[in-house]
Amino acid sequence: MRDILAKYLPVNAVEPVSELIKMNGVHLKIVNERITRHGDYRRMPDGAQQITINANLNKYRFLITTIHEVAHLIAFEKYGRGIKPHGLEWKHCFRSLMLPFIRPEIFPNSLLPVIANHFRNPKASSDTDAGLSVALKSFDPENDKSYIFEIPFGSVFKIHNGKTFKKVRKKIKRYECLEVETGRIYLFQPNAEVHLIKV
């Protein structure tokens, strides 16, 4: 397990994450990218605990996602299956599991204050915290995607499924975008990654 994790995690996180997985009897599966999620936890019909994490995540996002999913397992075991998946019990577990990792031996100094801020009240996904999402993305390999908040109003862009949209206006924290083909309005998170179409 340590050898596999060493490919995906910051070096000083390999040992404690490996112990956490072993201690909780988790079967960890590293899978191809899924657009809708970075990872997930499920209890299998035979009672086994399984966590899947996307292989394409940078090492800091991989670490946060792994701890996020282990927190689900621990919250359900400790408080029962009736709790909300991202409720107070999960937040408490996630925060306490993550705390030992929020240090300069694991995360770069540029990320530490953003991560510390996020864990005051962790969200259901690191992607819904635009500040954290942008900070983590700076450690991804170069790509040709832009964030919605970066592109000018009136810009036309494509998303992962090939649908084309036009950025129309900001509505509180999200952006209203018009689907070109249907004329329907959709709301996008500011840190949604899109392909800008040059016209």
Helices and strands: which structural class?
A: alpha+beta
Q: Write the CATH architecture name of the largest domain.
A: 2-Layer Sandwich
Largest sheet: 6 strands, antiparallel
Count up the helices. 6
The CATH class of the largest domain turns out to be Alpha Beta
Q: Catalogue the unreliable spans.
A: none
> What percent of the residues sit in helical stretches (DSSP H or I)?
25-40%
Report on this model:
With 199 residues, the protein is an alpha+beta fold. The chain contains 6 helices and 9 strands, in the order ααβββααααββββββ. The protein has 2 domains: 2-137, Zincin-like, CATH 3.30.2010; 146-197, SH3 type barrels. Strands 4-9-5-6-7-8 form a 6-stranded antiparallel β-sheet, with no helix packed on it. A 3-stranded mixed β-sheet has the order 1-3-2.
What's a concise summary of this model?
The chain has 199 residues and is of the alpha+beta class. It is built from six helices and nine strands; from the N terminus they run H-H-E-E-E-H-H-H-H-E-E-E-E-E-E. The chain has two domains: 2-137, Zincin-like (2-Layer Sandwich), CATH 3.30.2010; 146-197, SH3 type barrels (Roll).
Brief descriptors of the model:
alpha+beta; 3-stranded mixed beta sheet; 199 residues; 31% helix; 6 helices; 6-stranded antiparallel beta sheet; Zincin-like; globular; SH3 type barrels; 2 domains
Please give the structural blueprint.
Blueprint: H1 2-6, H2 14-23, E1 26-31, E2 39-43, E3 49-54, H3 59-79, H4 88-98, H5 112-118, H6 130-137, E4 146-147, E5 156-158, E6 164-171, E7 174-179, E8 185-188, E9 193-197
Parallel strand pairs: 1-3
Antiparallel strand pairs: 2-3, 4-9, 5-6, 5-9, 6-7, 7-8
